[in-house]
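Predict the assembly for these two chains.
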Amino acid sequence: MEYLHPYIPILMIVVLAAAFAVVTIIASALIGPHRPGRVKALPYESGMVPFHEANIRLPIKFYVVALLFLLFDVETVLILTWAIAFRAPGAPMPGFQGYAFLVMLFFMIILVIGLLYEWRKGALKWT
Amino acid sequence: MSRLLIENIIFAVKIVVIFGAVLTAVPFMVLLERVLIARIQQRVGPNRVGLDFIPGLGFLKGKFIIGGILQAFIDGAKLFLKEEVRVRAVDPVLWRIAPLITLVPAIMILAIVPFGPPIGLNIFGDWYKIPLAITDLEVGILFYLAVTGVAVYGIVLAGYSSNSKYSLIGGIRSSAQMISYEIALSLSLVGVLLIAGSFSLSRLIGIQSEGVWNWNIWKQPIGAALFLIAGFAESNRLPFDLPEGESELGAGFHTEYSSMKFAMFFMAEYMNMFSYSAILTTLFLGGFYGPIPLPASVYAMIDQPIFGIVSGVGSAVIGVFWFSVKVFLLVCLFVWIRGTLPRFRYDQLMDLGWKVMLPAALVNMVVTAAVIALVAKPISAAPTPDGPALTIALLVAGVVQVVAIDRILTARKRRILGHAH
């Protein structure tokens, strides 16, 4: 359990921050005036009366961006761990850095081919 | 009392002190921003509310910047006392927790920021080494990336749950923008991680000690620039403030929030600005180390134990001073850029993220790894700076990359402008 000790303050600060936010929001809601009205409760639409609910359709582009993000984020996780191991002392074999570099270069080439394909297909194009 | 209990009490004290200090700093940052923006736009800025409350200083009213010193506090109090307007048909649960999800990660990042070198404290005859950071995680950078990732949810949920078209568009835009730049943000740090060989922030600072020439910005100019730009995008500040572009979307994702719930988003933005400047300082600008190191004899003199209770006070004071100076200058840079640049168009924003920053980050990573494999040895156990050979090699590689990026972007601009005619 010793290795968990540096994480105790993270727990403390989460509790403190959440408590601070909840207490100030509730206190402000209790102290402030409360005069609801039918027009006041309408969503803002530049002074017009909104003519339907806000479940509007959005361009599919946002969905494509989310998919691309998922792919690249998984690759980022791999790259970050690789970066830490790259200069670690006690390499498992001589010439370890060159080997690690070539492995990552190979991975990067595959990654860049995918990126170029997306680029060519117009997945990154917004207009 | 057991050692574990005392250490936990020290943690709690540090959390309360740092949380209180940053919470007090937020109104001053708001004031600083308003004053600087006013000066940039040749206005006077806030100069009224303040000195009336301090007896004997009323004659200074309206003469100096300091005249508005209480403006931000008064604004906070005003927000606190305002009515909370509840819009019809909001999603009740998500709408209430969205400000919390935005603010809590912004505060959580403070947990890993190192403010100064450790001090020693004598409690009941035992010496405790207290780092001037709330905690020193082995996985500090991973923690930072994970927590900044959570902040996206708050903004998206705020936009989605408000039942307003402006909020919805702001939230969706924001999610696409933040996830796009998050990749560039993570990849821009790979160079630094390659050099340090660790996620730990104390190690990342340790390798930047002993002078300005050891700072990581010389080894990673591209990484620092990408991290700077991605940070602007992640904190939704101009020129990347499309989620809340006033002239297009009302107030964007927080259009329907009022009173203290709005103040949560507001505070989170400034806290993000602060913690982001602090992380940039720590990773690239030498953290709490000054530009020129003092001789070891001076440190030995100023770090003498005082009354046998605390030691290392001198270097802690110097460290906190340099850290504050750097963070202050970076916050001023944030404001300066807000006062200078116009807002991006959305397709330009996405272009910059995916077609410029992502390839640049990937190339920078490969080049840095190649240079390290050629020049550097495996890291030592203690965090000490690398020799000048690595710095010079990486600086040359960085300059070559800057020139190459400039060439490519200029050619691309010519091509696009050529098509337009």
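Strands of chain B lie at 116-123, 126-132, 310-311. Chain B has a mean pLDDT of 84.
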